[in-house]
């Protein structure tokens, strides 16, 4: 069976997902697209040679009889509306992060999904599908470094065009929030944000870098340097300090060069290149599981936890204090074991 997919939002990542589903992946076909910028939707259809209908708006895509599943890649503030409409239509929906721009919005989605009675929502946290994070998780789950005590991370972008306010947390650090609780099989209880000396390359009054400290239920302490104008490249680091050893996130594969009296390897500059394989795996697994009637990726609950944690980090940044991260009990609906990513 081919999964007939409708895409809402044909900007940067929407177009990229359409390209990979059309050219690189199997089992899915883009049959409907829409964008508030009609020109953008038209261009994607013609440039990628899609056999897809262009709709006036997202709701018409969701309602279309020949659309089995939805991908939401429009701007963040529109996500909640389209995810809720997909649940109301009983259609599986893959929503890019954020699930909603507020924790309350994410909770409304969780409540709607639970009331619907079947998991339909997957959130686009692609690091869980990254080969290197999966290798690290496998080593950790096999007990090769013992129980985790401390985790050191870095999230560095060369530049952050368009970033303002708290986006280093709400747009970038959200990926660590998601992937680390998956990696450690734990949840957060508190956070603190320390503001180091600012780089002169930060624009729009942006604080950069941030040092973000998280404490988990099991007592693991996580420190992350989020530095979005680091200049030298896109660099994601993660090191688990365990009771019996240290496990590092593998560096992306790249050619080791001996040239001009230097031994060197290249560092990516664009997150799209660093995570290109992860997006492929993420969307392929989403198509495969959706066709089987399953939902195996980051759930609406995971999207909600990220929003609550991210809000707490923003509060901690502005208050300078340690902020408790409080979550309601996870609904038993999400305990059924069908929302776990299978580790390869
Ligand atoms: N998982 C990841 O690593 C990444 C996730 N994202 C997320 O994907 C989303 C889109 O990001 P980009 O593609 O970079 O932005 P973009 O601005 O390039 O594209 C968004 C598109 O949505 C369209 N749009 C806005 N409101 C709409 C509506 N109501 N109906 C239909 N179309 C609408 C815009 O016209 C635009 O073409 C964001 O939420 C972003 O956070 C983006 C990059 C990476
Ligand atoms: O989602 C993403 C970007 O929006 C964000 O700006 C980057 O910092 C992240 O690493 C990337 O994955």
UniProtKB/TrEMBL annotation:
Catalytic activity reads: 1D-chiro-inositol + NAD(+) = scyllo-inosine + NADH + H(+); myo-inositol + NAD(+) = scyllo-inosose + NADH + H(+)
> What EC number(s) does this enzyme carry?
1.1.1.18, 1.1.1.369
Please state the pathway this protein functions in, per its UniProt record. Polyol metabolism; myo-inositol degradation into acetyl-CoA; acetyl-CoA from myo-inositol: step 1/7
Question: Which top-rank group of organisms is this from?
Answer: Bacteria
Q: For this protein, what is any one GO molecular function term?
A: inositol 2-dehydrogenase (NAD+) activity
The alphabetical list of record keywords is: NAD, Oxidoreductase
Task: State the Gene Ontology BP annotations.
Answer: inositol catabolic process
Gfo/Idh/MocA-like oxidoreductase C-terminal domain boundaries: 138-323
In which family does this protein belong, per the annotation? Belongs to the Gfo/Idh/MocA family.
Q: What is this protein called?
A: Inositol 2-dehydrogenase/D-chiro-inositol 3-dehydrogenase
